[in-house]
Amino acid sequence: MPLDVPWLSHQANQAAMSDHSIPLEILPPPPIPPPEYHKSQHQGADAVHNHYHIGQQEVPRPWYRQKWVLWSLAGALVSFVVIGLIIMGVMLKLELGKKATSGDTSAFGTTGTASSTNISKKGGNSATATGSEPEATATPFTMLATSQLASAFVKTNDAAQTRRVLIRQEDSLDLLVTEWTHGQMTHYRLRDRLDAKHVVAKPETPLALQVDDTGTIHLFYVSGTNLLSYLYQPSPGQWKAGEVSSDHGAIRTSAHTSLSTAWHNGYRASRLLVVAFDNPSQQLQLAIAGSPSEPGAWYIVDVTSVSRTSVPGQSNIPCYSLAGDLYSQDAVAPEASTQDIGRGNQYMLLAVADGAELHAWECSVDFWPPPDVQARCRQADDRFRTGSGENITLVPAPLQIAWVYLHGDRKDINGATHDYLLLSQDGTAAVREHLAGGGISRRRGNGFTAPTNIKAMSTTSEGMLFASSGKDVFVYAKRGDFWEPDVSTNVTF
Questions:
Q1: Does some domain include residue 215?
Q2: d(CA 134, CA 186)
Q3: What are the two backbone dihedrals, phi and then psi, of residue 333, each rounded to the nearest 5 degrees?
Q4: What is the number of alpha carbons within 13 Å of residue 11 lying toward its C-beta?
Q5: In Å, how far are 46, 145, 238 from 113, measured between CA atoms?
Q6: CB 166 within 8 Å of CB 183
Q7: Structural contact between residues 399 and 388, judged by C-beta atoms closer than 8 angstroms
């Protein structure tokens, strides 16, 4: 049996140790090892942790560095800048509007005073003098550069009704009113003083104003669908919506119609309101009513064709204007009653341009109301002839015609009276003038030249003329044989 030497050696050592063992209680505790501040080499290297990544993973970014945050901040910054610019623009426009309104006060104030002085010399009186601040529109407005003008002067026995009105169109297509009454001047949008919703006017709408014996102002314009539209003002600052329609419905105009209005007294047909316009076939027509504000009250009369061939450098827009009645002694009313004997016939005078030539037309309406009405129109160029037989030829061709009723205070060398001033403008700075009437030869007037080209003009019965350059409105007054500009009448809105 082999001997297990290692085991025997181990057993001998164990026996020796047991014979010389020392109790554990008397052994001192082992000394506390000093702290190790550095790892010794025998401890070996740090543990290696192996992490395996598939592809490349981005380190998560803070929320404030996300792309959506950056885009949101950029959008907010742009919004703040845009809002700031808008607010700045509105504030600047308000300031400019205040300055313009302040300028209007002195400008039209002088106009009113000057015209009042002029009328008082003629024996009348005007309540349009003003020197006070105007009532401003809440939002500043800007006149349409191609706006037409319409103006009227109301003079009645009631001083509260006496006023002057100027109407233009804003660049937003609203109709703007400047009104002088009670020694005050006000500017307002017509829709703000209207009792009902009105028909919106077309851009560059023609405008026509007429005044009746009660002090009511009648306004005509064209809608965006080329319908003849009507508003009236029974008292200062108050407007009402009316209707222009015949038995056949609404009255449609051509796309480039003119408008003109006047009163007519025919045989057994008194105080008829007449509006001249051209229809889609470019036929000059008259719309006639005894009670303008009543629906279906209008009657249509044909006058003549106003179609024009295209001529280079000339406008193809029809040009005509209705003056009003001429008193004629060349005929006696048929079946005249005692009160009609000696009255003769009343004819309305119209001026119709055919290129550079200006022709006169006369129309009469008798036996009102329909269906018994009788209407007649004829060309009457003798009304526009001079003593030597010359007709009116205007070069350049006229773009607009206006009238001023003379109240019988313009006489020729023989003492005969002219009824009307005929004024025309051709787009230049010149306004040409002629005097015309029944039973009297035409005479050329002085006219005047404005400081800039004229785009539109209108007149009043008091002898005032408003001329627009597209931005400014200039005011002239007829004093004697001459037109004089009023001081500080360069008006901007």
A1: yes
A2: 5
A3: -60, 135
A4: 5
A5: 107, 28, 24
A6: no
A7: no
Please report whether residue 106 resides in a domain: no
Q: Cα–Cα distance between 363 and 346 in angstroms, integer?
A: 9
Tokens coding 488? 């500080």
- The Cα–Cα gap between 93 and 70 comes to 35
Tell me how many domains the chain contains.
Answer: 1
Q: Is the dihedral of CA 288, 292, 295, 297 positive or negative?
A: negative
- Find the domain containing 201 and state its range: 142-492
Distance CA 239, CA 293 (A): 12
Q: What is the pTM of this model?
A: 0.71
N residues, the chain: 493
Q: Any bridge partners for residue 364, and if so which?
A: 376
Quick one: the chain helix, strand, coil %, rounded to 5?
20, 35, 45
Residue that is written with structure tokens 């851009």 in the block: 203
* C-alpha torsion sign, points 144, 150, 153, 156: negative
Query: How many whole angstroms separate alpha carbon 147 and alpha carbon 53?
Result: 78
Q: Specify if 407 maps to a domain.
A: yes
Report the alpha-carbon distance of residue 125 to residue 118 in Å, rounded.
9
Contact 201, 187 (CB under 8 A): no
Strands 464-468 and 249-250, sheet pairing: unpaired
> How remote is the C-alpha of 331 from its chain's centroid?
46
The CATH number given to whatever domain includes residue 421 is 2.120.10.70
Token pair 């006000």: residue:
186
Average pLDDT, the chain: 79
Residue 70 class from Cβ within 10 Å (0-12 exposed, 13-18 middle, 19+ buried)?
exposed
CB under 8 Å to 309, separation ≥6 — which residues? none
- Best CA proximity match to 486, nearest among 9, 77, 477, 450: 477
Q: Is residue 192 part of a domain?
A: yes
Over the stretch 222-250, which tens digit does the pLDDT of each residue have? 999 999 999 999 988 899 999 899 988 99
The CA radius of gyration of the chain, in Å to the nearest whole number, is 46
Per residue in 383-434, pLDDT (tens digit) is 999 988 899 999 999 999 999 998 766 555 555 678 899 999 999 999 999 9
First to last CA, the chain: 136
